[in-house]
Amino acid sequence: MKSSKPQVARLIDKMGIAKRDSHYTLPRRHGLTGLQREIKRDCRESMMNQFQKEEPIVRRAVFLGSKTLGLRVFQALIPASLGISWSIVHPNDSHDTRSAMHEWKKAARTLDVDLLISSSATQTSEIIRDMRPDIAFVCGWYQLLDEETLSRVPRGFWGVHNSLLPKYRGGSPLTWSILNGDDVVGCTVFELADGMDSGRVLLQVKVSNHVDDSIGSLLTKIEDSLIRKLPGKWLEVLNGNCVTREQNNDEATYCGQRLESDGEIDWNMDGKRIHDFVRARSPPYPGAFTYLRGQKLAIFKTSPHPLPYFGTPGQVLSRNSESGGVLIAAGSATAINVLEVSSEGEARRAVDLLTSNRLRLGDRLSTIQSRSTDAT
Q1: How would you classify the pairing of strands 334-343 and 326-330?
Q2: CATH architecture, range 7-251
Q3: pLDDT at site 370
Q4: Residues 142 and 91: beta-carbon distance below 8 Å
Q5: Which of 314, 312, 288 lies closest to 301 in space, CA to CA?
Q6: pTM for this predicted structure
Q7: What Rg do the C-alpha atoms of the chain give, in angstroms?
Q8: Taking Cα atoms as reference points, which of 268, 325, 333 lies closest to residue 307?
Q9: Cα(198)–Cα(190) distance, integer angstroms
């Protein structure tokens, strides 16, 4: 049973906010998120002004989300939403290796916030109807929200999309951005509308995509920047004075959701494209994969080879026991260093699994036939 103590007071207790001379201060450290020091520096005055209002514009809010990013965003919004009663709707993602449901449940208990699990878009629509929230935020959400559901929330649905909209509307946007070799990637906070990621833009975060970045490192850079910038913008939304802009639909591009089977490496691609392909599938994702003697082999880390190299795509060209890397032939007279691989869930140096120059990656056969050597 939930406490009868007002939620804003419970949040003050949980976060250790102390009242001093009719204003409120955040503690130096907060055991839940570690984000309060930055929020204190960036938007403390606006946050406390919002809290001290007797009649907040927004009273009830719902967060639809999952995964680690969703949780970090929710934890960043909480101290910028004092005086607002939050609820959480979490999708049933127990089958997803990236699920953070346990951490979500722990956070909900700590903050004394209701958490509901939804298994379908229909169930989510019913939950929103019964909650009657004033505003909603969406991050790490994969169910479609229909026009009727969107219309039930007077202050709108706001969400995070991992691309610089209007580019890459649709599924797996950051993956596609890395695959295409974009120099700059990022995310967009926008108001959901009855169209695919087409709503008005509130905030964009941009980070550089370096050749040695993985999707994991890019997610971290994007998330860290977003967490710093979002609370102040969220206060503007709550206060009704935010500035948004329309997307330019003439510049829009679209992308489809990628499946596990899309992760197989085509060794006929050039080395640069294969390197981007691996970076886009690296942890926390399952990894790009190929086959070795009929067994599936995940590839987690590579580096491009700078010089032309003639070879049969997928061919082991050389092995380096010191670096642990194996040089593999790719298309268009290029090559790529394979550094880290995984077989049966165990990450290993490539040189420890690819033990012969006679091996060919991409070989689905369970046995390797003897190959004659052409020295000409």
Answers
A1: antiparallel
A2: 3-Layer(aba) Sandwich (3.40)
A3: 42
A4: yes
A5: 288
A6: 0.81
A7: 24
A8: 333
A9: 8
DSSP secondary structure string for all residues of 68-105: HHHHHHHHHHGGG-TT-EEEEEEE--TT-TT--HHHHH
Q: How far apart are the C-alpha atoms of 36 and 136, rounded to whole Å?
A: 22
Beta carbons within 8 Å of 294's beta carbon, 6+ residues apart: 363, 364, 365, 366, 367
| DSSP-derived secondary structure for 246-283 | ---GGG--EEPPP-GGGGB--TTS-HHHHHHHHHTT-T
CA–CA distance, 105 with 265 (Å, rounded to integer): 37
The C-alpha atoms of residue 173 and residue 326 are separated, in whole angstroms, by: 30
Mean pLDDT by 10 residues, the chain (376 residues): 47 44 38 52 52 63 95 94 94 88 95 95 95 96 90 96 97 96 98 93 98 96 97 94 96 94 96 98 93 94 96 96 96 98 89 93 65 44
Who's near 369: CB < 8 A, 6+ residues apart?
A: none
**Best CATH choice for the domain 260-353 from the list 3.10.25.10, 3.20.20.70, 3.40.50.300, 3.40.50.1970:** 3.10.25.10
CA–CA separation, 136 vs 154, rounded Å?
A: 9
Cis peptide before 284 (omega within 30 of 0): yes
Q: What's the CA gap between 155 and 117, in Å, rounded? A: 23
- DSSP conformation letters of 60-73: EEEEEE-HHHHHHH
Extract the tokens encoding 114.
């209701």
